[in-house]
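To assess whether ligand presence alters the predicted conformation, the chain was also submitted together with magnesium ion. Input:
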Amino acid sequence: MNQVFKFGGASVKDAAGVRNLAEILKKYAPKNLLVVVSAMGKTTNALEELNEAYIAGESRITVLFEAIKAYHWVIVTELFPDSKHPIYDDLANTFVEIDWILEETPHPDADFNYDQLVSIGEVLSTKIVAHFVQLSGISCKWLDARSYIQTDNTYREGQVDWEKTTQLIKESIPNILKTEIAITQGFIGNTSENFTTTLGREGSDFSAAIFAYGLQAESLTIWKDVPGVLNADPKLFTDTQKYEQLSYAEALEMTYYGATVIHPKTIKPLQNAGIALLVKPFYAPEEAGTLISEKADKQHLIPAIIVKKNQILISISTTDFSFITENHLSELFATFAHLHIKLNTMQISALSFSVCIDYDAKRFQKLQAALANGFKFKYNEALELITIRHFTPEKIDELSAGRKVYMEQLSRNTAQLVVQ
Ligand code: ASP
Ligand code: MG
């Protein structure tokens, strides 16, 4: 049975990371394996900055591009002591692709520019990784993900054409996997006119799920810098606990409320095809990690705490002090949808409708302008939205202690607090 592994940017941020990846493949690679890799370290951020400078016509593009090159060359010289190794040409040629883009005048569609340029981060990383894996004595083949993942032309958020994509994966990849490991890029896809698209930030998990779905793989393993799926972000809480198992449904709920351990789009295709998802630590590959599948042991679900920062709580009421009716709500919802505003939580009372959303100054201005006729606003910024799945009263007390609570909402399984 085919399997898919996914390694994120943090796992290949330096030469030691790439060596560790090759070790994992040596010790733990199953027979038929496709490996999906993200751009190295913070390369995507660096390329985003380069793209902004390029569009703005700023001269700092040279400095920015040199830094990206230098970062990759340091890793390459450490991994490949033989300066005649083909990676040197291969990487130089990939950098030339960036040169070519930077020499052209930017395309009027900024998102189009973004995808053509930023996608190269994944090409760079997979070239280095594939050459190094090969050098370590593991037979492998570099695949261009754009030959398989087909999308529409929504740049920066390519919508996958599942039928075409599945067909392309099915008809050629299983054969390759019979004899060697395949290594390919996360995050990137291709339009019917052969332009590159990206699938949204942190989209490599989703790419891995698309490949797993197309291969009808037995499992997808996401290798991360955490022991597995934890009940809270270890950067915010000290006493986190790891889940041994989770159901797809529970994992979906957690990502919906903002847990960032897995990209939200990853789980659905796996669930549809019954593909197990393992989240494992790349620094301790022998550990069990977390198993996400249809059936999970539901008995002891530890409360999961998900914190979203930079929230704004907006209370909207009518200018004539009338009750909030279904007609008002329908106008409000139409406006949210039109402005692509995601409501993280909401509450209604007689005279006002409150929503908590991610704060974005421009969007908030647009919202106010769109509703200026008939509605007025009260709001508080710089809040946090804390969601607790499988809450206990003690947990709520603990998390709200010493904080000002602006809104609290409880359903059977989920508590939400908007706090300062
Ligand atoms: N390299 C891309 C990003 O940083 C995709 C990914 O890492 O999943 O967003
Ligand atoms: Mg990443």
